[in-house]
Amino acid sequence: MTETTKKKDPFHGITLEMIVTRLMKHYGWEKLGELITIKCFMKNQSIPSCLKFLRQTPWARAKVEELYLATEFTDEEPVKVKKVKSDAEEA
Known about the structure:
Blueprint: H1 3-8, H2 16-27, H3 29-35, H4 39-42, H5 47-56, H6 58-70, H7 87-90
């Protein structure tokens, strides 16, 4: 991977597990379920369960990655993020 490619990829060096874990610690399961309406955030809440679902469901993984990029991970101010619509809400 070239240096230019690394700079363009916001997830370079970040695993899906790291993304889900950081979002869960930042928001909690309940808030994640409100922001992204998928069952693994609302029921059977565990990192392994979410990873299995997200690896098999590209649209859900894209929503999680979008939320990760939109989240300001600071303890100093409230989180400013827009709700990511689920496919059911978009239809």
